[in-house]
Amino acid sequence: MIWVTTRRIIKAGFINFWRNGSVSLSAVFVMVVALFMIGSTLLLTAFLGTALKELEDKIDINIYLTANASEENIAALREKLTAQSEVKSVTYVSRDEALANFRARHENDSRIIQALDEIGGNPLTGVLNVKAKEPSQYEGIAKFLQGKSALSTDTLSIVGKVNYNDNKVAIERLTRLIGGVQKLGSIITAIMIGISVLITFNTIRLAIFIAREEIGVMRLVGGNNRYIRGPFVVEGIIYGLAAGTLTVIMFYPITYWLKSATQGFYGGVDLLHYFVANFVQIFFILMLSGATLGAVSSYLAVRKYLSI
Amino acid sequence: MAPVLRSETGAFLSRFGGFSSTRKICYNEGMIYFDNVSKVYPDKTVALEGVTFTVERAEFISIVGHSGAGKTTLLKLLLGEEKATGGIVSFESVDIQKVKSHHMPELRRRIGAVFQDFRLIPNKTAFENVAFAMEAAGKTDEQIASDVPHVLELVDLTAKMWSFPRQLSGGELQRVAIARAIVNHPDLIIADEPTGNLDPINTYEIIQILKKINDLGTTVILTTHNKGVVESLGRRVVTMEKGKIIRDDPTGTYSL
To answer: What's the predicted TM-score (pTM) here?
Structure first.
């Protein structure tokens, strides 16, 4: 009997969706707007997230080594640094590599290359490039390098210059900016989701308001609440799935169009690429939120008219 | 006793009339009791005041009175659409006031209701409207497939089985509503001014159908304004005025 009832409820939901064509169509369109808001928030968050990540990645501190630093001491310092819990990675750029990089960077600038050739030899020093797990941890690492107790004087003697203090202000600003943007992002997300929930709920409430007498009749004819409510919930789910599909389809041309605009942005992330790469995930999020919104809204909206 | 019926529709009718008429033979007790019932709406309108009467099993009772006399309120109490503010309304020994909301559907499946404004579901065909009552009662697909065409044949609507309410005339709509009311073989049919929106010919047909149903043992409560209907029936008439019963004639005539 449960199977028969379920089958009847689902069938009635589809039939109602089809026969209430114009109401269904407007409900779907309004839900497209709601899901579009959720979807764009999703993409915006992803875009911000990647942009911030790349910004974060650009932060590091460089330890310039003295010219006569021995390989052993460098290795020892590197090991000590890597052992720190805040440190994500330490890359070593030797003097020769530093020179090669420098030449490569300025290969089109004949004056610099000329100057370099005139100096003769290698004016650059080896560099240890330290990246922390969190931007806020750089200060700790810088302090560690100053703290003489942890490092033997031998090891410490090879440290020529640490550029943390030069970059301190920039690092702190970036850290604050990243934190602020993330907070703002979650506030916008919450507001967007709140608005779309309200829009959907009210639309479905109106759609069911039209059917309120019908619900009363069903009660008087002896339908129990579950059986009356079922088709409306199914209808709500269909609204959500239809709107979800439409929204996903809409996002393709939009992200394609935004592709060029966002790529130019600092730390640019290709939105189209992101959309295509995460298509399955976005598709499921939109479908699931659409169906849930539709079902819950219908459930609550019908309840009001079941009191007869 | 079920009368002999010739047509196939008769066979269907006698099927659901069958058990009711046996009961009719065994007992002759009250089926519905109104005991000192009063109803005051939230806006302080007094719709019923000290109404007491009994309806016997298999009776055909007409309730007449001016608009606002309380006829519809009386039927709403029976269907559990409204709760009385005082007194007891009982149906088959069940106190309707005390039936919980989630048990109400079970009670309502034993009562077929017909309304002046038909109250069909606009997005369902005639067939589906009747089938809904059976689905709600948890009948199987086979039962629905066989019984719905039968009742629709009984009310002479076989040709319009797949029409939507908007495609049907007033008389046809009311016949669909009656088909829906009787398809679950109820013990009681409540008809609230079923002929109020109909022309004389349709009125006559609807009343004939109700009479036929009553002849087979189903109790019928009818409210009406129509003098002709009441007099042609020649059955019990309860006359109401301002929420009170002022006359109760066993073979009444319409006098207001």
So the answer is: 0.74
In a domain, A60, yes or no: no
Q: How far is B228 from chain A (nearest CA, A)?
A: 29
Binary contact (A217, B133; C-beta < 8 A): no
Specify the CATH number for the domain of residue A107: 3.30.70
Report how far residue A111's alpha carbon sits from residue A129's, in angstroms, rounded to the nearest whole number: 28
Residues A197 and A298 reside in one and the same domain: yes
Min distance B221 CA to chain A CA atoms (Å): 16
Among residues B216, B198, B222, B211, which one has the least CA distance to residue B72?
B222
Cβ-Cβ contacts under 8 Å for B111 (sequence gap 6 or more): B78, B79, B91, B186, B187, B188, B189, B190
Question: Which of A5, A217, A222 is opposite residue B109, by nearest beta carbon?
Answer: A222
| Token pair 């479905």: residue | A204
Are A183 and A49 contained in the same domain? Answer: yes
pLDDT of A291 above 90: yes
Same domain membership, residue A15 and residue A146: no
Q: Which residue has the higher pLDDT, A143 or B73?
A: B73
HEC-encoded secondary structure of A185-212: HHHHHHHHHHHHHHHHHHHHHHHHHHCH
**pLDDT tens readout for residues B62-117:** 998 888 888 888 888 988 888 889 888 888 888 888 888 888 888 888 898 998 88
CA closest to A19 among chain B residues: B123
In sequence order, which residues have a C-beta less than 8 Å from that of residue B217 and are 6 or more positions away?
B2, B17, B18, B20, B21, B23, B24, B57, B58
> Which value does ipTM take for this structure?
0.80
B245 exposed, middle or buried (CB, 10 Å; 0-12, 13-18, 19+)?
Answer: buried
Beta strands in chain A (DSSP E): 61-65, 87-93, 127-132, 159-162
For chain A, what is the domain count?
2
A191 and A254: one domain? yes
Give Cα B155 distance to the centre of its chain.
15
Domains belonging to chain B, first-starting first, are: 8-30+57-74+101-249 (3.40.50.300)
Contact A219 B106 (CB under 8 A): no
Smallest CA–CA distance from A227 into chain B, residue: B136
**What is the tens place of the pLDDT at every residue in B142-180?**
889 999 998 898 888 899 999 999 999 888 998 899 999
Question: What residue in B sits closest to A16 (Cα-Cα)?
Answer: B123
The answer to whether the CB of B35 falls within 8 A of the CB of B97 is no
Query: In this structure, is residue A164 part of a structural domain?
Result: no
Counted across chains A and B, CB pairs separated by less than 8 A come out at 54
Q: Which residues of B touch A4 (CB under 8 A)?
A: 140-141
**What is the extent of the structural domain holding A198?**
2-55+175-306
DSSP A153-195: HHHHHTEEEETHHHHHHHHHHHHHHHHHHHHHHHHHHHHHHHH
CB contact under 8 Å between B121 and A218, yes or no, is: yes
